[in-house]
Write a structure and sequence with these properties.
Layout lengths: L1 E10 L2 E8 L2 E9 L7 E9 L6 E6 L30 E2 L12 E8 L2 E3 L2 H16 L5 E6 L2
Parallel strand pairs: 1-9, 6-7
Antiparallel strand pairs: 1-2, 2-3, 3-7, 4-5, 4-9, 7-8
Length: about 150
């Protein structure tokens, strides 16, 4: 399966885009420009996040072949908008990127630059597709394209 994020606009700290699977739009995305990944193709693996206590899609980069969970200190209170204590490129739930320079890509429905709403449903749909493909041993890739 190939997941594609097409970045449509960049305003100050926010990079907004569209996430599609095999050419079909699933949802909108938002990223913080300070920690956004460069254009390219990356592998995605499922990983149980120590902070969120659930499986999330982790983006494998050259610098990070596995999540930095060993160095990640568990936070006492975690919400969908909690910032990770270190840079960890994941696709996850959230509604804004302005306090989030942890490398995450949040999914949902676009409102204004850097802000999304209705994040849970698209994340759950994406996560379930990734879970099924991972259980079958299929390779999952993420391609990031800039159009802004």
């Amino acid at each position: 399966m190939n997941i594609t994020i097409t970045r449509k606009s960049r305003k100050a700290e926010a990079i907004d885009g569209i996430l599609s699977i095999d050419g079909v739009k699933l949802c909108d995305t938002a990223e913080h420009s300070a920690t956004a990944l460069p254009e390219g193709t990356y592998r995605i693996v499922r990983h149980k996040c120590k902070q969120y206590g659930r499986f999330v899609p982790f983006i494998v980069t050259d610098a990070m072949s596995k999540p930095p969970c060993e160095s990640c200190k568990k936070l006492e209170f975690v919400s969908c908008n909690s910032t990770m204590p270190c840079i960890c490129h994941q696709i996850k739930i959230g509604n804004g990127i302005y306090n989030r320079a942890d490398g995450s890509i949040i999914v949902g429905t676009y409102i204004v630059p850097g802000c999304l709403m209705h994040s849970k449903e698209p994340f759950d749909n994406l996560s379930e597709r990734i879970r099924k493909l991972d259980s079958r041993g299929s390779e999952i890739t993420l391609t990031i394209k800039n159009q802004c």
